[in-house]
Amino acid sequence: MAKGGFKRRIPLADALDMLAQHGFEIGSEEVSFDCALGRVLAEDVVSEMNNPPFDRAMMDGYAVRAEDAFGASQASPVLLKVVGVTVAGDTVSAVVGRGEAVKVMTGAKAPEGADCVVMVEYTQELDGVVEITVSVPPGKHISKVGEDIKKGDLLLKSGTVLKPQDLGVLAATGNLKVKVRKKPRIVVVSTGTELAAPGEKLGAGAIYDINSYTLSSLASGLGAEIVSRSIITDDESLLEDVLDMKWDLLLLSGATSVGEKDFVPEVIRRRGEVVFHGVSIRPGSPAGFGVVSGRPVFMLPGFPVAAVTAFELLVTPYIQRMLGTNVAVPHPTIEGLLTKAVPSQLGRVDFIRVRIEKHDGNIRVSPVSAKGAGLITTLTKADGFVLLDAKKEGLEAGETVEVYLF
Questions:
Q1: Tens-place pLDDT, residues 164-221
Q2: 97 and 136 share a domain?
């Protein structure tokens, strides 16, 4: 095992290309639409029916023939005979003939023969006769069958992450089952003899495990299923046991650098292949990726901020590819003006934690002071992050930057 430094830190772009060449298919499954929130569609969804499924009244009022109400006004109202009442849910409604009207409620099926609805505000009914004081054109206040969605229309594309409003569309069109990508089963392991579970009594030199909780939450937020989260000591046999578990993707944090106890890359190499180890990003450069028994393994740094950085830049796009999502970046973005210069070096991508403030109508973006990759508070104090491109030597104060919001 190499000691004393990486032979080569590859550019982030090269690492992403290598990840794309080592994809892992997880298949799909059919689920009930009401259990599909947050799932990723595995195929296009087309409408099973028209919506609305019938001509529908959009206002409370009277369904009439537009020609019968032509010329109606306050000064010269039109009188029509009321021949029925229709409310939402009625299966049978009266037929509107010449000189007739049917009282309708919002959502009711428009009666046969009527081609418009006069709002109740412009009517007055007395003894079975309604007085119309406004002229309305054909189609007014009636939603025609299929006006919103026609049977066979494309509703949602493959790769869509289903939102609450998408479930509403599925319900409205009779799509009770949808095919979605299976959730990748992920095992998350923090390595380190010094680690203890939160809440345990800390011995000399011990610290609480942070990474397994942070990484699990990040992966879960992308749509993965966390099947196991654990801590192992710096013992190769324990890692061997983890490699024998059932999982679709393995996230390891710690023991991934080139120190005497950084055993993870060597075990992965022995059991499979290390595709790359060392990426030109800051923080997070000790990150690596390997394959064991045809399954992907990410080796992430032990320092919390470095682990999160490597996850955001490497693991996130990989999980998205597993799920087939068409969301390029799972973060909303906002542009703002950088308040201070940020130095960097060519060839390296920097993950800059930032705070956002609104000042005099402008969005101001301020880097969060950071002295190391182990300071988890730099993440909790930040509103998001800026990626400093490998082709730039830094950012100038006053420069417009794009912020990825947490």
A1: 999 999 999 999 999 999 999 999 999 999 999 999 999 999 999 999 999 999 999 9
A2: yes
Whether residue 380 is contained in a domain is answered as yes
C-beta of residue 403 within 8 angstroms of C-beta of residue 335: yes
Assess whether 193 and 300 both reside in one domain. Answer: yes
| Phi then psi dihedrals of residue 170, to 5 deg | -65, -40
Compute CA distances 400 → 76, 350, 360, whole Å: 63, 16, 16
Q: Quick one: which of 273, 90, 36, 311 has its CA closest to 265? A: 273
Name the DSSP class of 51: B
Give me the residues paired with residue 243 across strands.
none
* Nearest one of 258, 263, 308, 319 to 284, comparing CA atoms: 308
Q: Which residue has the tokens 């000064």?
A: 75
Residue 328 lies in a domain: no
CATH number, domain with residue 81: 2.170.190.11
Residue 100 half-sphere exposure toward CB, CA atoms < 13 A: 14
Q: Which residue has the tokens 């003939």?
A: 97
Ranges of the chain with pLDDT below 70: 1-7, 327-329, 370-374
Regarding whether 44 and 167 lie in a shared domain, the answer is: yes
Distance of CA 245 to the CA centre of its chain: 29
Question: Which three-class secondary structure state does DSSP give residue 179?
Answer: strand
Classified as helix, coil or strand, 337 is strand
> What percent helix, strand, coil does the chain show, rounded to 5?
20, 35, 45
Q: For residue 3, is it within any domain?
A: no
Question: What gap in Å lies between CA 309 and CA 283, rounded to an integer?
Answer: 6
Whole-model pTM?
0.86
How many Cβ atoms sit within 10 Å of the Cβ of residue 394? Answer: 13
The Cβ-side half-sphere exposure at 233, using a 13 Å CA radius, reads 5
Counting DSSP H helices and E strands in the chain, the numbers are 8, 28
Find, among 132, 108, 124, the residue nearest to 54 by Cα: 108
